[in-house]
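Action item from last week, closing it out:
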Amino acid sequence: MTIQAKSESRPMTEEADFLQIKSIDHIHFYVGNAKQAMYYWWKAFGFKPVAYSGLETGNREFASYVLESGTARFVVSAPYAPSHQIAAHHMVHGDGVKVIAMEVDDVEKAWQATTSRGGKSAWAPREEKDDHGIYRTSAIYTYGETQHVFVDRGDYKGVFAPTYRPIKDKEAQSTGLAAVDHVVGNVQFGKMDHWVNFYHQVMGFRQLMHFDDKDISTEYSALMSKVMQNGNGRVKFPINEPAEGRRKSQIEEYLDYYLTPGAQHIAIITGDILKTVEQLRRNGVEFQRVPDTYYDALPDRVGSIKENMKDIHELGILVDRDDEGYLLQIFTKPIQDRPTMFVEIIQRHGSQGFGVGNFKALFESIEADQEKRGNL
């Protein structure tokens, strides 16, 4: 039987949604080489490059590309000088997520609301102007060195932000990736509840689900996770911490190589996971693979689904069911040299869960790779 996640059924009060977040505006990666990172997201994942900022646009500090697939928007930036803050971030963490930005109607109200509740300011409300209007932002810190940037585009009609210019000569072969479903953060042992309280108290999020070490464990390692969600349900941030185990968990491996808490993976939703994964594989994206025995028990565990079970097996896709429906998901291997961040591809047929019934098989697959790396 599928393990059922423990859920919180608190009503969404007006206070809980005081930020009035519209959506995740963009996710900003600090990388070692922005041009090569752009090429990877373009050619491997099918994101279309839409904007560039750099020396040619008057930006003397860093090169930056904006890419989009559906409503998912990624930004990759690399510094020109070794003294730049992006260089310092990359030296410590390698390629990784620096900013998870959210669109709001009023960045000043968002900044005042979060900092007055204990959030640490990254920068106060500010305006950037060019011929396309006014781009407004403010920002606070979350776990590690990660920032939440509040964005107001109401008076800005440009392609992304000042100094960015459109890219018109790079068409993309879409892989069907449509939107960011959730972003998972890894934090240190004993710190999960601290950050759960941060999202509740500072940002007005509510706990949607939680998983403990009985739900998420293997013979060797375990972790605990709580899922925080904003008022309208459009933004979901699971928070993971390691649990005590016989060997090193994937969360501990991440922390060893990222050196601080940070974004572990980005889940991107698709309307047809079979076509998406087929194309991603052709593009060279590498995925985790669970043992074939997982698929022997799958029909009895999840019941009837629309997709062909043979195709599911061949592509290595995982399936889970709950009271609301079912979901399909698959996870890439780490997308940079350090075993840190990876990507989840997910399709939902009613289920709003996170695939807890797949955790054991998935984590055993991850542990097999950890052992190859000498990190288990």
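Closing note: Confidence is low (pLDDT under 50) at residues 1-15.
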